[in-house]
Structures are given as C-alpha cells and as structure tokens.
C-alpha cells in the first residue's frame, strides 16, 4: 500500500455506515471491554486464521472494517489516524525499517485509536477539556484497542504496538510504564507522530500550533515523553520536506 493509495472508498463500507448506532456489549466479552456487537461474526470466522498469516485478504478486510467503524464513530478521529499513518510511514522509510516492520507499523498507526470506538460519544466528542476522571477512562483505549485486535486475530506485533503507543521514554506513560528501548520502536514512532498531529490539529478547547511550534514542543519533551533519536530524525525529516516544498513553490 503506497502513501497515496486510498484506504477506504465510500462504496466499500457504505453498508456499515447505514447500520444503526452501536454500543459495547460487555456481557459477551471479558474484562469489561468489548468490541461492538456486530463484530462478533468476524471474530468467529477469523478464529481459524493463523496470526502469522496477517497479509492475507482476511486481515486486510479486518483493517478496513475497523476503519469504517471508526469513521462512522468519529470522522475527525478517522482522519487523524490516516495522518498518523502517513507520518509514521515517512519516518519509518527515513529510518530504513524493513518491509515487515513498515507493514506492521502501518496497520498499527491506522488502528492505534481503535479502542476509542468503545467510548461514549459524549466523552469522545466533549468540547471542553476532560476531567481527570474522564481522562483516566480514555486512557483505557490502548488496552481496549489491543483486546479488540486480539479478538480479531490480528498479528501480535500490531496488537503490541497499539497497546504501547502511549508509553513515554522516561517511563511516565501508560499502560505499563515502560522505559526507553524497552518500548517497541513502532510504538515510539506512533507516540511521536500521534502527538505531533494532535498539536497541529483543531480541538474545541485548544488553538492548533503551527508545525514549527509542534516540532519545538517535541524537542522540548525529547528524552521525557519522546525518544530523543526519533525526535531528531523527525525534525530533520520535516525540515527537509518543508525546504523541498518551498523550493517547489518558488520554481
């Protein structure tokens, strides 16, 4: 899949967009976090698919289905995930990651916020800043997302990246408080690209930062929230892209 290849056409998931509102049915699944009810047939049908066989159409279809659900749940969050995917792949290519690493990272970046489909709309789309109690609830989305992907028989490397995408370099993140290189590289990449996109995007409770301001914030938090090496690579990459765009405009 190229960076410019369309991920979902309206026709591909129009039948999903027309379905009635969904909600989590915690009676049918353990640990108080459940995929939406009409995912159950897909979970059942995928039980016999080997986790290592992730590139087959079944797993590609699962990715598209989950993205359709996310788009229906919150279109702005869906667009955010597409942008995080693009930035993550650009950084992965800059770092010369292997094709397999890039493939796992691409899917994890697309689905890093899939756990938020289990959140109430009122919480997910709240126009004010979240209270501490609400934030603690939202923080469960990385765990919820990993469980959904596990139930959908997605490969373990993808599930692991989604589970750890809010870990911080200094150990202050969640859910496990991992430190430094103990955090999977793909998760460290998504942590950075996710934060960058959030900073430059509109939120009802915050004015978006310019890309330059966002890069400065990444540098300020380097070694704390973010992997210092990745911050350096990302800032260099963004600077190079910006310079090329300026040259293209001037000519």
Record keyword descriptors for this entry.
251 residues, mainly alpha
Q: How would you concisely characterize the structure shown here?
A:
This protein is mainly α and 251 residues long.
Sequence-ordered SSE layout with sheet pairings:
Blueprint (H helix, E strand, L loop, with lengths): L13 H4 L22 H7 L10 H17 L1 H20 L4 H12 L10 H4 L7 H7 L2 H11 L4 H8 L21 H16 L10 H10 L7 H23 L1
Helix pairs in contact: 3-4, 4-5, 4-10, 5-9, 8-9, 9-10, 10-11
Structure overview:
With 251 residues, the chain is an all-alpha fold. The chain has one domain (10-250): Hypothetical protein af1432. Helix content is 55%, strand content 0%. The chain has helices spanning 14-17, 40-46, 57-73, 75-94, 99-110, 121-124, 132-138, 141-151, 156-163, 185-200, 211-220, 228-250. Helix 10 (185-200) packs across helix 11 (211-220). Residues 1-38, 40-49 and 51-55 have low confidence and may be disordered.
Structural shape: globular
CATH fold-level name: Hypothetical protein af1432
> How many helical stretches?
12
Work out the count of structural domains.
1
The proportion of residues forming helix, as a percent range, comes to 55-70%
CATH class category label? Mainly Alpha
Category by helix and strand content? mainly alpha
Largest sheet: none
The end-to-end distance, rounded to whole angstroms, is: 31 Å
User: Radius of gyration from the CA trace?
Assistant: 18 Å
| Assigned CATH superfamily | Hypothetical protein af1432
Q: List the quaternary state of the chains.
A: single chain
Share in β-strands: under 5%
Number of strands: 0
CATH architecture: Orthogonal Bundle
Mean pLDDT: 80
Along the chain, the helix and strand elements come as HHHHHHHHHHHH
Task: Report low-confidence residues grouped into runs of 5 or more.
Answer: 1-38, 40-49, 51-55
């Amino acid at each position: 899949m190229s960076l410019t290849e369309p991920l979902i056409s309206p026709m591909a998931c129009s039948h999903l967009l027309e379905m009635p509102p969904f909600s989590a049915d915690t009676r049918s699944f353990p640990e108080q976090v459940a995929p939406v009810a009409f995912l159950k047939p897909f979970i059942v049908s995928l039980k016999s698919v080997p986790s290592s066989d992730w590139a087959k159409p079944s797993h590609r279809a699962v990715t598209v289905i989950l993205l359709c659900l996310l788009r229906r749940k919150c279109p702005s969050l869906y667009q955010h995930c597409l942008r995080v995917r693009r930035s993550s792949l650009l950084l992965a290519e800059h770092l010369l990651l292997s094709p397999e690493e890039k493939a796992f990272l691409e899917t994890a970046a697309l689905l890093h916020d899939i756990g938020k489909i289990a959140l109430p709309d009122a919480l997910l789309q709240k126009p004010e800043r979240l209270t501490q109690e609400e934030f603690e609830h939202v923080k469960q989305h990385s765990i919820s997302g990993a469980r959904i992907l596990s139930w959908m028989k997605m490969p373990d490397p993808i599930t692991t990246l989604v589970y750890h995408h809010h870990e911080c370099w200094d150990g202050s993140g969640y859910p496990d408080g991992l430190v430094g290189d103990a955090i999977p590289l793909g998760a460290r990449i998504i942590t950075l690209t996710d934060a960058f996109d959030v900073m430059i995007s509109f939120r009802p409770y915050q004015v978006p930062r310019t890309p330059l301001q966002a890069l400065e914030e990444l540098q300020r938090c380097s070694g704390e929230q973010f992997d210092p090496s990745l911050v350096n690579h990302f800032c260099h990459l963004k600077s190079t892209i910006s310079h090329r765009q300026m040259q293209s405009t001037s000519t």
